[in-house]
């Protein structure tokens, strides 16, 4: 939990007493590698914050292949936010890429937390403002970059990530086949 | 301004006195068709809310072509949010598609507004949470849909929009050539 305390104070001023109250709205969850935290067709009850490990979000394409659309490492939030907001069933999966420890908050607790602790309105405003800005840039890159440029750009932004994520998942996220990713990597090494 | 008052109350509880105070942080701006509100290389000073008309965001590709990445109709916000947050120079343009009336808020005023009016933290938290959820869906669609499916999907979601936006801009947004868009439309009519 130390990581959440440190993380929160990067965004807002909060004292130990209020932090203790805030944490009562969350639960800690341990998940095994490849465990699904959310599956297509299930009610999207929770928003997840990664304390340790890595989660990913994917959907199943018409041809049956999994398409990864998001990763979440330590201190990142991940949810099917659209269905979480509306408390609807999800149309995607959230899965642990590795053994992970996460905080989760239910939609009901999220609403109560924001009503009881205005500092958390400010915190989530900053988080979602940053996410909106990051999504705007990601959408631009999807228009702008060739597949090889996407890989180079991602490698520059997240060098540790490239080492840590299984290559077939990274390929899926970048919209490649694993074979094409191997080709790019071989070309860059030569 | 009536449109901003109505819009705000969809998201938060605010009385007339506080609304009057909130509006002092904003300026109203009239813009001509094709007027640039922000150009690449300029400091990204403002966040814009459309009262009337339509704005778009685009960047200039290496081949010199304009790539539209976002439209904003009445009650939508638009900015180069990444450079607005960091008060850096923009790497894109914001332009009026038609004669428009907008509210704008400077970064300095945005910071002051949030500090003075916690209700606006709640408002912007909701706006950016919705934007994050919408971006997640848009990114999924960029992976999932063929070009023809993108057009059909967009037409179902925003029927009025399709009538209103010049076809060459819509084609750019969807990642088509104008010729390809004409072909799809002809095919759907036949």
Strand percentage of chain A, roughly? 15-25%
**Structural class given helices, strands, pairing of chain A?**
alpha+beta
| Sequence stretches where pLDDT stays below 50 over 5 or more residues of chain A | none
Work out the helicity level of chain A: 40-55%
CATH architecture of one domain in chain A: Sandwich
Computed over alpha carbons, the radius of gyration of chain A is 18 Å
Q: Could you say what the CATH topology of one domain in chain A is called? A: Jelly Rolls
Can you tell me the CATH class of one domain in chain A?
Answer: Mainly Beta
Can you write the helix and strand succession of chain A as a string? HHEEEEEEHEEHHHHHH
Task: Identify the CATH homologous superfamily of one domain in chain A.
Answer: Jelly Rolls
Instruction: Round the mean pLDDT of chain A to the nearest integer and report it.
Output: 94
Question: Span between N and C termini of chain A?
Answer: 44 Å
The number of helices of chain A is 9
How would the global form of chain A be characterised?
A: globular
Q: How are strands sequenced across the largest beta sheet of chain A?
A: 1-8-3-6
β-strand number of chain A: 8
The biggest sheet of chain A amounts to: 4 strands, antiparallel
Oligomer: homodimer
Query: Quick one: which chains have the greatest interface?
Result: A-B, 34 and 34 residues
Protein name (chains A, B): cAMP-binding domain of CRP or a regulatory subunit of cAMP-dependent protein kinases
InterPro entries (chains A, B): cNMP-bd_dom, cNMP-bd_dom_sf, RmlC-like_jellyroll
Keywords (chains A, B): Kinase, Transferase
Pfam families (chains A, B): cNMP_binding
